[in-house]
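Following up on my earlier thread - several people asked me to post the actual chain instead of describing it. Fair enough. Here it is, all 425 residues.
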Amino acid sequence: MSATSAQSSTVPAAATHQTKEHSREVRAPLCFVIDSDASIRHFLSLILHGAGIDTEEFADGQSVRSALARRVPNVIFLNIALESTDAIECIIALGRSGYAGHMQLMSSRGSAVLAHVKSIGEQHRMQMLPVLKKPFETNSIVKILQDLKLGDPPAVAGRIELDEALDNGWIEFWYQPKIDLRKKQLVGVEAFARARHPLNGVLMPSAFMPGAHESSLIKLSEHALAQALNASLNFAKLGVNLRLAVNIPINALVKVAVADIVQSYRPKFEKWPGLIIDVAEEQIVSELALASDITKKLQHLDVRLAVDDFGRGYSSLVRLKDLPFAELKLDHAFVTDCGTDKVNAPLCKTVIDLAHNFGSIAVAIGIEKASDAMALVSMGCDYGQGFLLGQPMPEERFISLLRQRAGSQRRKPAPAGPAMHARRA
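Reply from S.P.:
Thanks for posting it. Predicted structure:
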């Protein structure tokens, strides 16, 4: 899956170097999200924050005017409900306040109503975008942002050496939410390695991981562990208790001083939820004795192993039943179209049941469709990750999202939307 990793007792310079050059000296673009449905607001905010855009959420248009006095947004996403009066009044109030930016209407209403509301926005000199019909998916929002040239540019293709990236301090870690699918609650985070190249911008692992030497993978793993532990502390300072996961190949894991790193860098508070190290199933199956030994050595430190890409080697899965893995992460192939594919759905359910029979939490990765998310809930899957629930984002963006959630909960208690409420420390 991803290249995530950490830092050790003898922490190399690349691991301790905190790259600050890329932190924004100017404020990120801002989007107002206006919708009475909290789940839609939260879903949009996850996508927008992942793209490098700040958000403010509003259940209706009445409180938008005072927010506009504090800061003018770059774009507004406005829902048109069955009763369109609120949307029209909101547009008129925004026009009178002088807002002339982009307006993205969202609705499941008929075209006649949408055309009427859109024309009112145009009369008030707003830049009205094509209406976004509900239900919509992540790709629709991403395309709008790209067309407006808002937020972070997409990762580019390129090729660099992992050693070069580590030595120059280009490696950073982005964080993707892990969601309790039944409770619609944020329960964890997975770290993904990125390289921020001074000329090419953000590079994905495919640009620096292929062909990496074992010594470089060990350094990356050390770096990832230390950064994940530091991020865990930063999240805890906001009162959010999240278990972080990093991905380390088993050949690097056996040579990383995990215990020393954890003891040196772990947050020193009572409710620290621990750390998860994801290891690919094929590596664990071929090294069961080694995986068992690692598990026993790390348990007292609240560090657990998870099986990544679970289900790929189905004939060997029975061999995993005696190892106490924290999570079994379903291979992406089982998750894709599990809500509509009549062949894939029963296979997905079987793998989820197998994870539960092993006493582990079943985690679906790569969720991109609402129909798949709903099917996974009905199948009893515990947790989920994917662009539908939130894409990987830089640590400062993730912290910004957590702060926003904390602020909105203090201002007004609201029912939980997908992925919106975090466990409190």
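Confidence is low (pLDDT under 50) at residues 1-25, 413-425. That should answer part of your original question.
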